[in-house]
Specification:
By secondary structure, the chain is an all-beta fold. Among the domains are: 47 residues; 106 residues, no CATH class. Helices cover 3% and strands 52% of the residues.
């Protein structure tokens, strides 16, 4: 890793990866590119941004046409607002859009504000509503297009976005046990729909194109994990595939995170 650079987020970028984080004593926001073929890291590129902004994503595979930043503004100890700042080119100034979500202070920012972006849309999880909901935001205007309740979901959801829209389900710590609901919200949908009900817990989600990959943990006493591939807006099941065995471990979890980058799939633990 380049000297002085601290990575915070990871995103696919063309045929490689893009690390976003901070560099230097003043903790300036910067990105580091990773080439897929050689795993070579570039020098940190410092980005201009408004105060308090946190990177959501950078342009990747044509899915997002401008840099997108999530701007958190603390109104007081009880509330923090989230808005998007976008720019049409790397050298263009960031434009701050209207507030799209208001969270519950430090707790809300730490456990919600989950954000994913794909195909010109940004999806923000909102815990202030009952039931909790997802806000769909235009990446070009920064304006909210609608709020979609997802009954049964709690804090720290699993979220992935692709050409079919947003896929969101419960994490294991918050309602993600047996019978986990997987919701889909389409790019132009008027409401959320339950795409699939799993007989187990969701471990992770990853989406690209028109495909969704999911890690599903069987209920006790098995506690084994399978990799599922679902295709299309109706989440057609293509296959379940058991992960490689991990001798000496009852709960193998070698698939804790995956990323797409062009034709390359990255998997980490």
């Amino acid at each position: 890793m380049p000297a002085g650079f601290g990575a915070q987020t990871l995103a696919a970028d063309g045929n490689g990866l893009l690390l976003a984080g901070t560099v230097g004593a003043h903790q300036r926001c910067a990105t580091v590119a990773v080439k897929a073929a050689t795993m070579q890291l570039s020098a940190p590129v410092v980005a201009s941004r408004p105060a308090g902004a946190h990177a959501v994503t950078q342009p990747c595979a044509g899915e997002v046409t401008a840099d997108i930043w999530l701007v958190a503004t603390f109104k007081n100890m009880d509330a923090v607002t989230l808005a998007l700042a976008t720019r049409s080119a790397p050298t263009a100034p960031l434009r701050l859009g209207p507030v799209v979500v208001t969270l519950k202070g430090n707790w809300g920012l730490a456990h919600d504000g989950d954000v994913v972006a794909a195909n010109g849309l940004v999806w923000v999880y909102d815990d202030a509503t009952r039931p909790m909901s997802v806000v769909r935001v235009s990446a070009s205007t920064g304006r909210a297009e609608g709020s979609f309740p997802v009954p049964g979901l709690g804090y720290d959801p699993l979220m992935a976005a692709d050409a079919d829209g947003l896929w969101v389900g419960p994490s294991q710590g918050w309602g993600g046990g047996k019978g986990a609901r997987l919701y889909r919200i389409g790019p132009q949908a008027k409401r959320s729909t339950v795409a699939r009900l799993f007989n187990g817990a969701l471990q992770w989600l990853d989406a690209s194109g028109y495909r969704l990959w999911a890690g599903v943990v069987a209920p006790p006493p098995r506690l084994s994990e399978s990799v599922w591939l679902l295709e299309g807006a109706d989440a057609r099941r293509v296959f379940p595939r058991p992960p490689p065995a991990c001798p000496g471990r009852r709960w193998p979890m070698p698939w804790s995170a995956t990323w797409h980058s062009g034709s390359t799939r990255w998997t980490g633990t």
